[in-house]
Amino acid sequence: MENFAIHIHESYLYGLPLSVVNLIVMFGAAFVVLLGFVAPFAGLLSFIERRIAARIQCRIGPNRVGPQGLLQFLADGVKSLFKEDLIPKVADKPLFIIAPYLVFLGMFTSFVVLPFSSQWIVADLNVGILYLFATAAITVVGLVMAGWGSGSKWSMLGGMRSAAQIISYEIPTGLAALTAILLAGSLSLQEIIAAQGPHPWQWYFFDNPFTFIAFFILFVALVAEGNRAPFDLPEAETELVSGYNTEYSGMRFLFFFFAEWAHLYVLGAILTTLFLGGWQVPESLLASVGAESIAARILELVFFQLKIYVLVFLVVQLRWTVPRVRMDQMMDMCWKYLVPIGFFCVAGVAIWMMLFPDGVSFVKYLLIAFSSAMVLYYFYKVYRNFKDSRAELELNPFV
Amino acid sequence: MEGLQHYTPLLMIFGLGIVFAGLFLLLAYAFGPKNPTASKLDVYECGVPSMGSARERFSVKFFLVAMLFLLFDVEVVFLFPWAVLLKTFKEAGMGAAVFWPMFVFLAMLGLGLLYEWRRGGLDWD
């Protein structure tokens, strides 16, 4: 980032002071991240999710706008531009107006610290993970504001539920993240990735049984924090109409959904960074394109994205596979299962570090074998389901 | 002030986010129809005219959750500095000095959670 600014300064803008060039470059980077990446990703994800949902339900899904319906999200976005922006008479106007902003900002600003490659990061904060949790908390404030500000009974219930849910699940999230922090000895996302390696046995996921469990705790807790099914009680259609966004229309409504899909990406990024080795690429592969070249950076970006997309796909599939849980089940799951197990994992990792500072390769390979068996079983189940349904829809993505 | 320049992109992206969101809302305001009627401005309540206010008393369980969150989140925050430094202390040969005090803290946390559980503080119904 800094080097790039100096390069730009020396080559093109030498008339300006370096600090100004720095600012311009940073602004440009932020702009690229925003417009070139976050917005299309959230949009495309909405398309992909609808498409996967359709295939799981033996339908075809959106396929009219653009090639294979790829431009559906643009059509939806333009459509919501032409919708009337209604504010209910009983609404608390300032809260009602600010709420979508806060939800949007909470999601959007978390992209600043995500490490896309060893050098492509907008700001490598030394408090990276804490910052991510802090931005998630901004979203809660937005949701409660939306629920309270709407003045509708459904919104109120949805807002309260989402507040209770998100703040509860923040604790298992923190505990599970602690296990990776313990091993890396840093809060900076780049340093946590650098402390891991490109190969699975160097990932924190397989480092010891406690981090293995912590990964699943973090996965469940992050899905719950994003108000995603099976934890989408705040917007449960069957009981709360649409929860906190019942009264929103047009663009403001879109912001809530934008935030939901952007959260999916952040979810994948957090899990990848903490447990799956982030952008790490095997050295031989890196050397073949030149470790300092731009191709190496792109390779790292691709590895990072691939891991994220696998996780995102899992979450999307989860939504259409598992029924919604009840409120008391959800709170029980957090406080009676995830939190105690989370404490157990933190203590376990600390003990493991004291006993085996260099790790135990036998345990690592055992964990890898176990998860490979799990993945194989998963594919077997998917294969069986294909055979029992309209296979021509599911196996051919271009129907 | 030395480390603060790392936070400039944050400020920018906050600003950019607000501008971006505001721009779209402005566009929606410019293009969208403005044709409010009484029933459009009413809140949705199963299709009938809404009765009473939504801002009434709600279940006390939510307050309990908020309190539990405050307690445990503060305790988890105390764990963060320890988690960051344990590795450093371990490599310096002083691992036990940092490890045991936090273990007592973790045990107390666990006991607190157990107490809460036994008193029914974690039951939703």
3D architecture notes:
Chain A has 399 residues and is an all-alpha fold. Chain A has 15 helices and no strands. Chain A has helices spanning 2-11, 18-56, 72-81, 93-109, 128-150, 153-184, 189-195, 209-225, 237-240, 250-275, 283-289, 294-319, 327-355, 361-388, 391-395. The mean pLDDT of chain A is 82. In chain B, helix 2 (61-91) runs antiparallel to helix 3 (95-118). At the A-B interface, helix 2, helix 4, helix 5, helix 6 and helix 10 of A face helix 1, helix 2 and helix 3 of B.
Key terms:
heterodimer, A: 399 residues, mainly alpha, 2 domains, 15 helices, 70% helix, globular, B: 125 residues, 0% strand
Short description:
The complex is a heterodimer of chains A (399) and B (125). Chain A is an all-alpha fold and 399 residues long.
Radius of gyration of chain B: 26 Å
Number of helices of chain B: 3
Low-confidence stretches of chain B: none
Distance between the termini of chain B: 50 Å
Mean pLDDT of chain A, rounded to whole units?
A: 82
List the helices and strands of chain B in order: HHH
Number of structurally distinct domains of chain A: 2
Give the H and E element order of chain A. HHHHHHHHHHHHHHH
Chain pair sharing the greatest interface: A-B, 83 and 69 residues
First-last Cα distance of chain A: 44 Å
How would you summarize the topology of this molecule?
The complex is a heterodimer of chains A (399) and B (125).
Chain A: H1 2-11, H2 18-56, H3 72-81, H4 93-109, H5 128-150, H6 153-184, H7 189-195, H8 209-225, H9 237-240, H10 250-275, H11 283-289, H12 294-319, H13 327-355, H14 361-388, H15 391-395
Chain B: H1 8-31, H2 61-91, H3 95-118
Helix pairs in contact in B: 2-3
